[in-house]
Amino acid sequence: MAEPSRHEPTAGGLGRELGSALAAVGYVADPELLATLEIRELLGRPLLLEGEAGVGKTDLARALAEARGTRLVRLQCHEGLDRAQALYEWNYQRQLLAIRIREGREDPEQIEAEIFSEAYLLERPLLAAIRAERPVVLLVDELDRADEEFEAFLLELLGEFQISVPELGTIRARSTPVVILTSNATRELSDALRRRCLYHWLDFPDPEREAAILRARLPAAGEAFARDLARLVARLRREELRKVPGIAETLDWAAALLGLGVVRLADSPETVLRTLTCLLKTREDRLRFDRPAVERLLAEVA
Amino acid sequence: MSAAAGADPLAARLADRLAAFAAFLRANGFAAGPAELADAARILATRWSGGPAALRPALRALFARDREEWRRFDSLFDAFFLSGGKVRTQTRAAREGTRARPATLVELAAARAGGRRSGPPEAADRRDEPEAADGPPAPRPLIASAAERRSAPDTRALLAAADGAAVEDLAERIGRTLALRSARRQKRARRGATLDLSAIIRASVERGGWPFELVRRRPRIRPLRLAFLLDASGSMRPWLRLHLRFLRGLARLPWAEAHLFHTRLVPIGRVLRERDPERAAAALALLAEGVGGGTRIGAALTTFDRHHAPRALRGRACAVVVSDGYETGPLAALDQALSRLRRRARFLLWLDPLAGAGADRSDIRALALARRHADLVVPAGRPADLAALERLLTRARGRRPRAVRAGR
Fold first, then answer.
1. What superfamily in CATH does domain A43-87+124-202 come from?
2. Exposure check for chain B: N or C terminus, fewer CB within 10 A?
3. Do B232 and B314 fall into the same domain?
4. How far, in Å, are A23, A187, B177, B220 from residue A147 at the CA level?
5. Do residue B199 and residue B258 come from a single domain?
6. Domain for residue B26, yes or no?
7. Nearest residue of B to residue A187 by CA position?
8. Of A42, A84, A185, the CB nearest to B311
9. A contact set with B (CB within 8 A)
């Protein structure tokens, strides 16, 4: 935001609209992100978001769904995630029961056709997303944690928006979901996947934006309080910490301070020091800040 | 796009310019294909009114594939659209020569660094490196130096050594062997492996619903991650070629990662994976400024631990430091860094190229620390040593390796 005049034109009409819609649900996006979201609307490609933990990748999907007034379908990836958990599964118990109940009474082919029908299909997130009547926001969270095979399978979905179920045939999307993929870059994603996506690197917000986020989420926070806090956090992030605090941590910390009745940070270094655990999550980081250090930081940002 | 080109001359010129920009990006390592170009034309059609400032973030989201490209895009965009096509003419001129791409990359970086060096990397190199750096391990530079060397060695020669193919294959074989360790313990559970109900039902369909065949779940195979940290200081110069080839072989595997360090830490995995040897050499030349200078092992390992280890050493991982132990930084920092690394990695190996070469290594204090923290300190000065490493790691089968005998 150092050069607002240069950034301003990046948000076109659609971007501005989207920006205010997101702000209404508590997500303060920067113009560059709005530009990316705008061309996502234009091109309909999936959006791959990367960034440090806690910069608001997952929250963007939530806010986008809320702003568009649609459902958020979330798929949390983990090692060993397979099609059964991501896509669909047959309801085996019901199928077994159905076979037993109809045993000897009907023609087996008919039973087979029946038990492999949609009534016995359990929808998992990906299938739910493309079978929805209205476009939903599909969030594939932390894709880097899933195995490479799953990533390859996801390509079919992202490229064609269709899914093949061997027993039922190909299911085409009724509506094209807004697909957001997030990654913490713990693993290099394949080039094939990257090629299908738009890419956006989310950075930690600058102090002004973080203050705006604080004020949007915590109406009780005063302007000066939010500004000082955001500056202090930005200052802390520049330290060589083992675990850099994210926006969620900032919000937690602000809530804690407000709950303890702090109005001005500089007035209550003791409380700041005591609540610093909301922000610093490893012992090593915590031990680096004692009272003089905190007072020095407070003097710097005030 | 051709439809737009027919419509009015301005659109046609813009489309041409865009295509030239895509070619420029491709020359700089981006994957700007026809699909991206078509989408770029659509973006151009809707967002042109905003001028370049509006276009840049939109095109960046389209063309960039990862963080590194995301960072580089702005300067490339500016160079192409805002500097009167100066860079473009350079690219074209360079492409006509035989060593087209490396020159472009080097020149771009040189321009960014304020034109520190203008000639090709080789020319600059030969001057301050009078004698050939390969051959048998020479005891020439045995004094650790804190000086940062700001020129790059002849990286093309480093990567193009003819005998390197065998070393590369060896490295890949080691990585693959280590990867074939199953994720779960092999000891049999009392009740046997659990049944996979979905697979049983699927199999029973063809038998009229009778579950004749029981399918059991099997342990999955999960690779053992490898993170190599290669000392590239002056004293390690004689082995640099061997080790780089070794790492290049390892880098073929997606679960292996390579970093180079001297006075700084430089990730080189991406460069090693580059298939085009010309481009790999040029990129390495850019990254390797400082190779052959002093060493700060402790600082480099600390940087690795802070910025890369959470990703590179998650799960089952093996960290390997390749260094002769001539440390110029404080030993306390190295001590701390090694102990952190030891805690993160499943096991920690230290490869010392001078070990086993007849030299007395007992007085190197950094090596004493290495022996304290690492699971194993083994020689790595010759291809045979690396082959022995294969035997050692294979025998360890994903468990902590032990030196049973001097494995040679």
1. P-loop containing nucleotide triphosphate hydrolases (3.40.50.300)
2. C
3. yes
4. 35, 10, 19, 11
5. no
6. yes
7. B311
8. A185
9. 6-7, 9-10, 12, 31-32, 35-36, 38-40, 42-43, 45, 47, 50, 79-80, 84, 89-90, 92, 95-96, 99, 108, 111-112, 116, 148, 184-188, 191, 194-195, 198-201, 240, 242
Nearest to A175 by CA among A126, A123, A130, A124: A130
Residues B213, B308, single domain; the answer is no
Structural domain range at position B234? 164-177+223-396
pLDDT tens string for chain B (408 positions)? 444 444 567 778 888 888 999 998 988 888 888 888 888 888 888 766 666 677 888 889 999 988 888 888 988 888 888 765 454 433 333 333 333 333 344 444 455 555 444 334 333 333 333 343 444 444 444 445 555 554 445 555 555 555 667 777 877 777 777 666 555 555 555 555 678 887 888 777 766 667 778 888 776 666 778 899 998 888 888 888 888 888 888 887 878 888 888 888 888 887 787 777 777 777 777 666 666 667 889 989 988 988 888 878 877 788 999 998 888 888 899 998 998 888 888 888 899 888 876 677 777 888 888 888 988 888 888 888 888 887 777 665 555 555 544 333
Residues B249 and B360 in one domain: yes
Q: CA dist A100 to A104, A111, A122, A204, A260, Å?
A: 9, 10, 20, 58, 63
On whether ipTM exceeds 0.85, the answer is no
Cα→Cα distances B223→A82, B119, B311, Å: 18, 43, 14
Single residue among B41, B75, B96 that ends a domain in this structure: B96
CB atoms within 10 A of CB B346: 17
φ and ψ of A124, to 5 deg: -110, 170
- Tell which of B96, B112, B131 closes a domain: B96
**Cα–Cα dist B22/B40, whole Å:** 9
Structural domain count, chain B:
3
